[in-house]
User: Fold this.
Amino acid sequence: MGLSLTIAVFSSFIVFSILLVFIKNKWKGLIAIAAILVNSLISSWLAIRAITGSIFTTHLFAGPVFGDIAIRIDALSGWFILMINFAVITGILYGSRYMKTFEKRTSDITLHYICYILNHLAMIAIFCVQHALAFLCAWELMALSSFMLVIFEHGKIGTLKAGINYFIQSHISVLFLTIAFIWVSSKTGSYDFKAIGGYAAGLKPALGFLLFLCFFTGFAIKAGFVPFHTWLPRAHAAGPSHVSGIMSGVVIKLGIYGILRILLLIKVDDLLVGYTILILSAISGLYGVMLAIIQHNLKKLLAYHSIENIGIIGLGIGLGCIGLGLNNPLLSFVGFAGALIHTINHSLYKPLLFYSAGTVYQATHTQDIDQLGGIIRKMPHTAGLFLTGALGICGLPPLNGFISEFLIFTGLLIGIATGPASAGILLATILFSMALIGGLAMLCFTKAFGIIFLGTPRHEDHVPAGEAGWFRLFPQYLIVLPMLLIGIFPGIFIRLITPAISLFTGPGQTPAISAEVVGTMQTIGLSGAGFLLLCVLIFLAKKRITSGKSPKISPTWACGYSAPTPRLQYTGSSFVRTYRKLISPLLMMNKSEGNISEVFPRPIHSHTNPYDKLEAGLIDAPVRFLRKFMNLFDFLQNGSEQAYILYGVVFIIAVVSIPVIISAVIYLIGI
Amino acid sequence: MGIPVFLLIVFPSLFFAGIILRTKSICSGRKGPSISQPLRDIWRLFQKSAVYSETASFVFQIAPAVYFATLLLAIALIPLGGRSGLISFKGDFVFFAALLSLGKFFNIIAALDTGSSLEGMGASREALYSMLAEPAFLITMASLALMTGHYSFHGIFGALRYGSSLSLAAGALAVFVLIIICLIENSRLPIDDPATHLELTMVHEVMILDNSGFDLGLISLAGSLKFAMYGALISNIIIPHGLAWFYIIPVFLALQISLAMLVGMIESFMARFRLNHNPQYIFTLTSISLLIFLGALIISGKIN
Assistant:
């Protein structure tokens, strides 16, 4: 069955790709949707079977180099496949409308859609194959296709730069993974993932941890943990909005999947791993949101929030590991459940936010938050959708974000109460950061929503003409549905996800713990539903009581000032100014400001440009140093062909003579 | 079971604002209005028609209802005197904090909805202050959870015992932290002066400049509810375990009244801080909550 399925998927890809090349531009979007749907149906069927208990395993013989490729879909892979399928479907539904703007660029559009389908296939393959070489191939395919997706607007220099930055960093990730895989396969002679577990079990603890770190670093670069995050805000801001949504919502989750998979395979000291992940995640969470707040560019703001959310997911994973290490099954269940559900949650609201940001961008032609304003009057649906996403990402009830954050908070409390003092002190610090992250996220999204959608337009050039079409709103409403469902029926959802969690926590006590957690979550879901009801009741009561009195509409009270202009409004920068001043030592704001001079001063401009301090220290400074060092050798690159031929001759002589000289020396010493 | 507790917290809250006002009047040598005057004001507001800003959207119209609903639900979580609230589950204080954040979220965006620069200013401050105050509340509650080994309001307050001087100190500090958080969340002195007339220095008052009629009434009522809510939390820490219900009710009422009088006294005898000193002041709370945490670690025998 494995072979026939693979053939079916590949042949459908080829058929659809050929169709995409030859068909009219108008129909390309539909063909792409059809292709994605076909692939999603096949993979979702396998995934749902895996989640409900029948694990899909098969072997595929792929020639002498690869050997037998093991394909295994367990509950973990199943959930990840379902998650990416949903995001990719909404992405293409939205994207096929988004790309209408670029309909004239035939070849670009064709390439874009083919890469989109390829990216989807590669991601499914990553979740299915458990064979090092095939995994690396799929990983590379995913990296390349998403690079092509990001640089769609390759006419812009910034986009190309961001794309190349992403390209290089994702290959550093590949480098780490390759080293780790080669390490294992050179010792065991097998490419199967099972060999990794077997090999790691026989290693010394320190070496095992090193192997784990090697994998972890590779996957952490993909996931965007600080300090491996610098590619993320650039790449996510550069691509078309549906690509940003997919990249942020699911592509970075491949890193999370990798980390989870490796945790299943390599059994090292759980506490050490847990603490490492926990500390790194807390830093990622805080740093991500701290930088998100000061961004002027909406998509960059959202991208930095992805780093924050990856941090929260990491906190869940870390708690789960600590639970394993402390032999506390409840803690490990709650931790891994929080991580998995937050992964799914983030794959819902982040694309939603990016899609609505894309709608705003196409309607106003700017991503600068401070130029926008009052969009809610022209685009109420988009505003409502963005607000829903914002409430979700801030972890507020009754939406889904709260469910996963609640689980992680519960995990922290359990860890503090039951762990030893050292764990308690660390976890209290994490609790502090978690609470701070929540507050900062609220600051960030009240800024984003309030400044962009509310108030009056801040610039006359950036006023939208009207609401986006229903084709564009439909996929976004489609995302709101599971967000609400998870928020209001979290119990059912946790029951469904229990098989995946029990892979980590072991099948023993998990069902009983799951039942206990489900009970609590049921109450939360009910309270959330009750809350919605209460809101509606109060609103209806208000309508009823004030029904006889028609409200008056008048200008906003400006405290007596009679000629307020839109420019008097608070901007995004002024909204977060106090915050920026508070944490200024941690930030890097490049500011250029003119001075007021002369008796009748000319107009002056103040320009701020937020930059990443870690990037300046960890990426820019070494690169600068490397350049300086390399410049010492620029005399070699002198442009004369004779010199280049000489280098070749020198190289050949060196290749031949160095071994001869070495063996001569050995011979002489030997005497 | 939960409904009497809920009503017991909600009902006295109606007079909270009145008691504060009366205390302030007496302290400044005036007779002052009766304690039901704010209630009568709210009743009058409920009957008035509203004026909406031409800039405002649906957000502005639903925000007060959402804010009010979050407070009602938050109060439903609070137990009293060994009886659980309407809703109780493990980790309900996290839900409590999230509900309050939700209410604030809507308040802030409603303020930004009017497009007024002054309201934006207030909104910015509110967002910052609540961000700084949130860790203190959660760490305090986590410490109490560590002390008692329970994870819900009901469990924690039911199991809180003051056997040693250390636990007494932790309890006292927790009360202190909660009182300060209560003042911050309600935008009272020394963070924010509700009686000021200068919009530039307001926090909460400037955010609701454009609210009128029913909405303004709802927001004023919510303010009283918020006081009572924190008052109830504080009472839970103070009221000794195992008290019969006919003692609990008068003790609870007395505590609520004394909290209101305390707020009135603070407002009479203290000046407002400079706005740029507020963040440090609020952040100090977190270090106090860490002290409680340290105490909890010792009490639970993890360090000695």
